[in-house]
Amino acid sequence: MKPRSCVGTFGRASRAQQLCAASAIVLLGFAVWTCQASAARRVPLTLQADVTFPFRSFALTLPAGPPRLLRVTENGRPVAAELTPVLHKRVPFSVALVLDTSLTMTGRPFAAARAAAGTLIERKLARSELALFAFSAHPHLLEDWSTSSSQLASGLTGLRTRYGTAIWNAVMLASSELRRRPGAAKAIVVLTDGRRDTTATPVAAAVRAARQAGARVFVVVAGSGKPAQLRRLRRLSESSGGALLDVHSLRQLRRTFAGLARTFSAQYLLTYTSPLQRQGRLVTVRANLGKGVVGEASYRIPEITAATKKPSFWFTNTGADLFVAGIILGPILLLGILLLLRERPWPERLRLGRRRRDLRA
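Given the sequence above, the corresponding structure tokens read:
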């Protein structure tokens, strides 16, 4: 009986170990790739309501500044897009500051809320406009739109708390006002203690109004709040591309509003012309902003009316110029072609006339 070859045994074991190691490396690489993909930081893109299709404009926050390379796609199709800081616009921002003046805010919370609102007014962007709103049982305008910090701050004096909480109606009122404002980007900042709304208005109505205005909603909750109401406030803020900021102490309130002022200074507009046309089609927008930052949004193509349809080529400046040039140059070209293709009978006639004269002679 022949002894088993140790070399063969060790060779087979070595190959098995190599296969296992290779498989482990592949799985490890896939896991790392998956982690990197999931670790990509996503930023919301908020569609601006005052831009008519096919033109698209989205507001977004880029604290680290614009990327070196920008890649934007619609349903996977690349589009040529631009990033512009709102600071370069004539009116960079229109912000509606909405304050909760219900009875549950009485005392220190109310005083801290007014001080925090003053911080946001003081640090607002140059040329940006603000308006002050308040709500208890009903929302109302405290101070009309202005770029003057002193005028806006004067609107905080004389505030009183009252019964009732109409927060959704207040967001709807602010959204309605924002739709008529010229700000390049628009936002609603709501300061509340998180107590439930006492009206019959649903949160869905406030969400819809904010979207129609193209406004991001930032909700600052100064207090414990009610869990059900906090869920509704989170839905309102996140669906608009904003954020829910939960403040655990009154001392943090002013720092939170100072942070909001910094956030507004890092706003950009992503603009491009959509190549898609089919009405009602769902469009997914994805912007690769570099350094693991990805912006995403979706919208449906609106009804393409006469005002939004792309004009026919012949009604554009280029088409009109070509049409006029065709009218002028067309007959000339046609005449030249006819002359080139035409037979030349005159020399032949001259030769025949000479022969006849020769015969007569």
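Residues 220 and 245 are 5 Å apart (CA to CA). Try to locate this feature in the token string yourself.
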